[in-house]
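Input record (Table S2, row 423):
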Amino acid sequence: MNFKVPRGTQDILPQDSWKWHKVEQIISDVCRAYRYSEIRTPIFEQTELFQRTVGDATDIVQKEMYTFEDRGKRSMTLRPEGTAPVVRSFVENKMHGIPDQPVKLYYVGPMFRYERQQAGRYRQFVQFGVEAIGSDNPMIDAEVIALALDVYRRAGLKDLKLVINSLGDRASRAKHREALVAHFEPRIEEFCSDCQTRLHQNPLRILDCKKDHEHPLMVTAPKLTDYLSDENAAYFEAVQNYLAALNISFEIDPNLVRGLDYYNHTAFEIMSTSEGFGAITTLCGGGRYDGMTEEIGGPNAPGIGFAMSIERLLLAMEAENVTFENDELLDVYVATLGEEAEKFGFVLTQQLRAANIHTDTDFLQRKMKGQMKTADRQQARFVIVIGETEVEQQVVQLKNMATGEQREVAVSEVVTTIQQLMK
Ligand code: ATP
Ligand code: MG
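Output record (magnesium ion complex):
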C-alpha cells in the first residue's frame, strides 16, 4: 500500500522549511516591536465555540469544519480560525482584569478547513494572526493594519493593496439587512443555491459569494456605508484619518463584508496585486469584533484583529519574484581519511558545534572526492581536511571555499581561527 499526504495538506520539506523560519522570525520581530505577545491555544476546541462566534450560517461552520466526537461523547472541532480560541482564552483567564489594556496577542499555528483544494487553499494551513482586545479607539484599528503591512514589507512584498470598509454596528446592519432582502428577493432564483439560503439567514453574505459576484444586482445592491449611523460613520472616518497619518494608502470597498459573522465596524483585506498571483488574491483579512467576549459569556471587551496564512505570503513572494537569503547554510565540513582521522574529526566537529559553528562531517567513510562533493553541494564556507599526518602533528588543513585559500592550523587554534574568518 502506498501512503500519501492527505488531500489539501502538504509536507514542508527541508528545501522550504528554512523559508518558514524566516517568516516566523519576521513575525516575532514585528510583534515584539509592536508589543504583541504570543499566545498558544489548543488545536481543538468545543464545537459550540465556533458555532457561536464564527456563526452558524457561515461557510466555515456549515461546510468546512473538522468536527468529531471524542471518547467522552463531546463534540470537538479542529480550529478553523484563531480569533474564537484567543477570545475564549481572554475570557477564561480574565485578561480584562490585567491593568494594562488593551491586551495585545498574536498566534501562529495550523488551522483546519475542509475546502476544495486549489492553489493557495489548503485543508491544513498556518495562520499568523493578532488580536488587540480591550480598546475601541480607532487608532488601534490603524495599528493592527499597519502591523500586517509591516510583516509583508519585511518579507519584501511591494504589490499590495489595502481595502477597508465599515460594517457598522448591530442597528445599522439590521436596517441594511432589510434593504438587502428587498433588493435581492425578487430575482433570487437567478442566484446560486447558497445565496438562496443566505437571503433570509444572512443576506450580507450574498455580497461575499464567489459564484455570483458578476451578477448585475451585486453592483446596485444597497451599500452598508449608506446605512451607517452618524457615530459609525465618524468611527470609520477616524480609522481612515489614522491610516492617512501613517501614510498608508487604502481603497474603500462597500462590498467587503468578510466571511465570518463576528465582524462589525472596521473590516479590511490586504490583497496581492502581483501579475503572477492566481485567482485568489487575498493575503490577509481582519476586522473589529466588538461583542464577541459577551457572546461567549465574558464581560464587554471590544476587539480587533486579522489573520494571514503563511502559505499565501510565500506564494505572493514567488509571484513577485522576491526571495529570502538562505542563512541556514553549512559553515564547516570536516573531511577525513582513515580511521584515526575520522575519530579525530568527529571530536573536532563537536568542538566547533559547541562554539555554535554549523558543522557536519562524513558518516559513510567515503573517499575524499565524495566528501568534497558533499561540502560543495551544501555550500560549506570552509572545509577542514584531516589525514593521518594531521592527526600525528595535531594540525588540520583549513580551506576557505570562497577564496580557495588553504592553510595549516593547529588543532587548538581551529575554533578561534574560524570564528575570526567568519566575522
Ligand atoms: P477566502 O475568501 O480566501 O476563503 P477567508 O475569508 O476564508 O478567505 P479568513 O478566514 O479571513 O479567510 O482567513 C484569513 C486569511 O487566512 C486569508 O486571507 C488567507 O490568507 C488565509 N486562508 C484562509 N483560508 C485558507 C486556506 N484554506 N488555505 C490557505 N490560506 C487560507
Ligand atoms: Mg474561506
